[in-house]
From TrEMBL:
<feature type="transmembrane region" description="Helical">
    <location>
        <begin position="283"/>
        <end position="303"/>
    </location>
</feature>
<feature type="transmembrane region" description="Helical">
    <location>
        <begin position="379"/>
        <end position="401"/>
    </location>
</feature>
<protein>
    <recommendedName>
        <fullName>Membrane protein 6-pyruvoyl-tetrahydropterin synthase-related domain-containing protein</fullName>
    </recommendedName>
</protein>
<keyword id="KW-0472">Membrane</keyword>
<feature type="transmembrane region" description="Helical">
    <location>
        <begin position="106"/>
        <end position="125"/>
    </location>
</feature>
<keyword id="KW-1133">Transmembrane helix</keyword>
<feature type="transmembrane region" description="Helical">
    <location>
        <begin position="12"/>
        <end position="35"/>
    </location>
</feature>
<feature type="transmembrane region" description="Helical">
    <location>
        <begin position="310"/>
        <end position="330"/>
    </location>
</feature>
<feature type="transmembrane region" description="Helical">
    <location>
        <begin position="81"/>
        <end position="99"/>
    </location>
</feature>
<feature type="transmembrane region" description="Helical">
    <location>
        <begin position="350"/>
        <end position="367"/>
    </location>
</feature>
<feature type="transmembrane region" description="Helical">
    <location>
        <begin position="230"/>
        <end position="250"/>
    </location>
</feature>
<feature type="transmembrane region" description="Helical">
    <location>
        <begin position="156"/>
        <end position="174"/>
    </location>
</feature>
<feature type="transmembrane region" description="Helical">
    <location>
        <begin position="131"/>
        <end position="149"/>
    </location>
</feature>
<feature type="transmembrane region" description="Helical">
    <location>
        <begin position="553"/>
        <end position="573"/>
    </location>
</feature>
<feature type="transmembrane region" description="Helical">
    <location>
        <begin position="194"/>
        <end position="218"/>
    </location>
</feature>
<keyword id="KW-0812">Transmembrane</keyword>
Amino acid sequence: MDESTRKRRDLWIRKILVVGLFIGLSILFTITFYINGRLGIDSDGSFHFSRVEEIYRNLKEGSFFTFIATHTFHNSGVGSFLFYPSVFIYPWATLRFIFDPLRAFYVWYGLVMFLTMAIAYYVMFKFSQRRIRAIIFAIFYAISAYHLYLGLKNYVIGEFIAYTFVPLVMYGFYEVVFGDAKKWPLLSMGVALLLYSHLLSTVMAVAIMAVIFIISLICGRIPDKARWSALAKSVGLALLLSAWMIYPFITDYLKSDLGTPLPGFSFQYTMQEFWAASLENSATNRGIGIALLIAALFGWYFVKSDRRERIIYALGLTFIVLSTSLFPYSVLQRVESLSFLQVIQFPYRFSVYSSFFLAIVLSLMVTRLFDNKKKYQRIVTLLGVVSVASLLYFNSVTLMIDRISDPDPNVMLRETDDRFATVPQGAVLDHANYKLLFDYLVLYGETDYYPKRSFANNYITTNPAAQSIILHHVKVGEKVIEKTPVVAPNEITYQVALKKKATVDLPIIVYPGTKVYVNGKNVSHETSKRGTVMLKLNQGTYKITTRYEMSKIYYSMLFIALLSWGGLAIVGVRKCYTH
């Protein structure tokens, strides 16, 4: 065996060992929950489980695309899929064909943890050219207490998925602006994947990159033509990859007066509360965890001799400040011209970036343990670090495990006669009571993307219009009739018998893409005062089907995006093979 062949073999062995390590850790992080088979539902959980249930039922009925909620969200036809990305919950829905609903989630969670570590490893290895550092960064970034809070405590699934791609976005931006501008496709892919995950996370990432870029310009770092070109190309490719996701916002969201979660700067931690939460190292609060807190406290000693590492450390501390009330959000709220900043809703969302930058610092600190050591000593040290990380992980999720282990019968989700009951905070689900989840209103987000006139913002009992939609109230003239709809993927059907000419108002949300068919014939319709389908009919018996139909432009854009991804994959494989 010649030297080059031996080196290639050794390289592949190292790669396989790294992948094996991440697979093993993903199984370890998931197995306790999987075996238990129960889940404590909280916060955004009912919203996302309802979305996955809708996709699963549509797939089961042979329809791949889901645009509106017909089986879930009380058959309202709300566009939770038009305006909230669902790309990465399709695998979760697909797992439903193999596993029960709760174990399907845990398997999906394990896959996301693996993907998070794999992408973080790739980014750090390219950044530092040190495999050990890349492994350490990947593990500690993935097990950040804030990441686990998103995924296992509050089920903030969009942000949980977006967290996976933040390293790719930041690394792509770094290369375009400060490093090898030829790597500009990484920025495009990162932004597109972020957009496929969570819109607000994309907005925050773009804003953060813009601020860093402007600061670099102020500091005299003016990009040359090659970098400006790379930046322009990355924007262009990102648009090609994500135009199909943006299209419904232009056609349906901007043309409709829809209700969305209220902006603001809510749930602000004081700095003292933030430190206490991080020291507690629990995924039940919004801290970053004790390991990253150590990086914040002692990182300066390790980064002081390297300008690039110092900037990363400073960014980590900056985002800690931005996550707390130490930043003057109360002042910003009073400045009308800056009201657009309130779109972030919760300042603790910046913990994604403090976790990212401080995990980089922590990886540098821990890597020092491997310096000047023999091979077997490095292996033992790595096993020790992985063991400590695993202990920190289980320390973070202990309260979640306790909640689902031999739960009190009173906390198990039970049947309800209250038509407006929301899912109780902390209710425990198992295979037997899972379907009861959809008898309740979604805790947060039942009326998100309703027309503003019916938008209740989690206060259903104070909004008669929202109540009437949820109760399936069909209005025939001045008469109100409660009817049960017949549903199919992206369509809802009501049977109506009229003794005389009347205006019929169906409890189905109207969007620009909404089409109405009466006895199989496409007819024009109006929008009622509650923002639902309304039409005038003569005496007779009618089968009224409301369907959401997406424009052919959308499918063309999706096809272009798939071609672009295919091209990127081919180029990537060729480069890998050549290398």
